[in-house]
Amino acid sequence: MTNPFGQQIQDFYDASTELWEEVWGEHLHHGYYGDRPPRRLNRRQAQIDLIDRLLDWVHATGNGTSLNEQSQVLDVGCGVGGSSLHLWQNLRCRATGITLSPVQARRASERSQQAGASGSLGFLVADALEVPFSDATFDWVWSLESGEHMPDKTRFLDECYRLLKPGGTLMLATWCHRPLDSGRLSATEVEHLRQLYQIYHLPYVISLPEYEAIAQGIGFENVQTEDWSPAVAPFWDVVLESALDPKVILGVLLSGWETIQGAFAINLMREGYQSGLIRYGVLCGRKPHA
């Protein structure tokens, strides 16, 4: 395995995925709230809204090729298949999801079979730094909150570039830290990030401008970025409220130490967004036509 954090990430998601799906459903990512009060929006709907907003935004930038029955999407860090299933249900595109967690890959396959999509969707355990597919296989690479887990951001984006067909689209939504144009990270900020890295088994995160520079350096065209932090930050308030449910508390305790540690990080994420240290960056670009 190319990813030196791979086993830790696998253990974390193998232990926590069942509880997360039971409490939250099939989407293992932020929700999109915009200027809407979080308590007035169903939390699962907010997560679906994030997928739809990302699709709309990519198309608005001019980077989104149309997805249809012939389209092939690579869903990097697919979880239990939430994004792949949503894309198939709404656009009928084909998708292949990859994850480091056998538990997630198995559950995603089960869910696609239950939905009648097994002929269009496939899921496997694979390292995103060394994906077992040929060059120019996919029309889209969809990376929804997996970039933060990559120990080599440049190699990851280079792999995305390799896998895309000429004219293909990259969509990346990922946890970042604040841009460094206002100064280096303080000792307090570095310590805050270190705690998050330890709990979530993250190698490191970078700023959105750094992602943009990497994507442009690799050769992506029309690279567009936006900071969606205000629109997604309320997600962690909702997570905290749900975590106070006695059934959830019991589930966390029964799931083991990895999941317990993950619960401890909720407030770290909330505080990180409140201070401006943690940012939610979105990026899209297009592989040039040959």
Structure, described:
Helix content is 48%, strand content 18%. By secondary structure, it is of the alpha/beta class. It has a seven-stranded mixed sheet, sandwiched between helices. Strand 4 (138-144), helix 5 (153-163) and strand 5 form a beta-alpha-beta unit. One of its GO terms (biological process) is methylation.
Radius of gyration (Å) = 18 Å
User: Approximately how much beta-strand content do the residues carry?
Assistant: 15-25%
Helix content: 40-55%
Multimeric state: single chain
The run of helices and strands is HHEHEHEEHEHHEHHHHE
- Estimate nothing, just give the exact number of structural domains: 1
Class inferred from helices and paired strands = alpha/beta
Biggest sheet details: 7 strands, mixed
| Unreliable sequence segments | none
What's the overall geometry? globular
- What is the level 1 CATH name? Alpha Beta
| Distance separating the two termini | 31 Å
Number of alpha- plus pi-helical segments:
11
